[in-house]
Amino acid sequence: MTELLGAILPYITTILLFASIYAVFALGLNLEWGFTGLINFGHVAFFAIGAYTTVLLNISGCPLIISVIAGVALAGFFGFLLGIPTLRLREDYLAIVTIGFSEVVRSILLNEEWLTRGPFGVHGFDRPFQDAVPYQHYNTFLLILFVAILAIVYFALERLIQSPWGRVLKSIREDETVPYALGKNVFSYKLQSLIIGSAIAGLAGTMLAFYITYINPCTFKPIETFYAWIIVILGGTASNKGTIVGAIILWAFFSGTKFIDRIVPVPFESHQMGAFRMIVIGLLLMLLMMYKPEGIFGRKEELALSD
Amino acid sequence: MQLIINGLVIGSIIAITAIGLSMIYKTLNFVNFAHGDFVAFAAYIAFFANKELGVHLAVAFLIAILATMLLGVSMEKVVWRPMRRKKASRTALIIISIGFALVLRNTLLFIWGGSTRCYDIPVRRGFDFFGATITHNQVLVIIVAFILMFLLHYLLSRTMIGKAMRALSDNIDLARISGINVDQVILWTWVIGLGLAASGGVLYGLVTAIRPSMGWYLLLPMFAAIILGGIGNPYGTIAGGMVIGLSQELSTAVLPTEYKFAVSFVVMAVMLLIKPEGLFGGAK
Questions:
Q1: B109 near A CB under 8 A
Q2: Interchain pair A286, B103: CB under 8 A
């Protein structure tokens, strides 16, 4: 029994580590899309900016905590830059511009080798408390740290959205002419939501870097954005609790499909398995939006789906 | 000179693929993020018919167009029309379209793998044109693209269905009360828009390699073209496509080629800042 547990426990730790990282990542998106109604299809760009800024500053000698703060701040700053040309216009422009931005960021990461080391990626940066925690327990320590970060982000967001500020966001999602008529600066609220959501994605990026200890541009493909989308929609749009559950389901699904061929024979080759997983994610997005747009924990009234 | 020719070739492909995106954007009031993957789908169908079934490329071209139209019409009947009936919002439609984009692209990847493919056509030497080299394929692309643009112009300005399509994209409710069969015309919009996108996809496969991600990388230049030209304006889209194609290629004279498509991103962002209604659009 203990033997079995010893074999399974590392897998569970891995799933939970990834789930906590992606839960934070998706909570950023949930603030933007779930609570404000902003369509951000380039969420991965802020994930990448957070991760790269942190590790690049750290390997050039900057203390870890300052690097993390810089990474989070820079991700938020780019959210601000993207919001300016798009948030005054119809909601679909933000989708178009962010999806383009995430590809531009990735091609800069790939090609500016003097800054980002190009396709070889970055490793050899510090990890939090790496000297204090024995190596064989490090992942357990990281899991505790990540769950703590997730809890802080979760409760901070819950407080924010229940504040007057959060109520304005929700009213923008429902019908932005109403807060506008009440004298609220709708553009500024949207911009704030995008900045905070992007900064949270940046924080998730640094968490990812600390866990996988090696990042390269391939870590930040556009598909990462849609992992966040499926997490939010599956768990329930505008439900932070649902987002966390969605992240756990997604990562359980990923590791399940990774090892499924050991239990039942699968007639695919390995590259096909990756494509198959994406087909499932795409279909799930379509079917959820068509038949159960509120997800598992969402409420129908809380959807940004009425014009 | 070489860059200008390459730019015109890519520009005409962007132009004819983007027209469909623009028409659907305006008529149905949503951005179809799967549009680029329809383009790639067409290139793969043409590749399949040409290389694996062994038919002539011209026949493969027609098969690809028909298959893409069929896929588009089935999507309209199974997904978009029921969703319109349910009064689904734009944002719901956008998310469904991106889900479908993932499904389509990864289906191509699943069946044909990630390696690059090309048609079964003889490789011929290009000929000299004022010091630049033009390949036969590039000439073919430009000729076919211009024929298609002319056909579209004829269709939109001279036929009943074209006029109905323009009426719909202008104001769908007014079109409905003046007795136009809206569902029928929307179907035609898909057929024509995706037919153009499919032709663009097959042509794109002639001048570049066929990969599952080819449509994805065309999506951003297409968006830039329709924003430049003004959404729903087919002539503006053609002009926008040419501008984007040329500026992408000319940028390689000063920037590394990897940043080609970043050019369309910058053009788009600047355009949204200063004149979001497009170059030819009036203030709305």
A1: yes
A2: yes
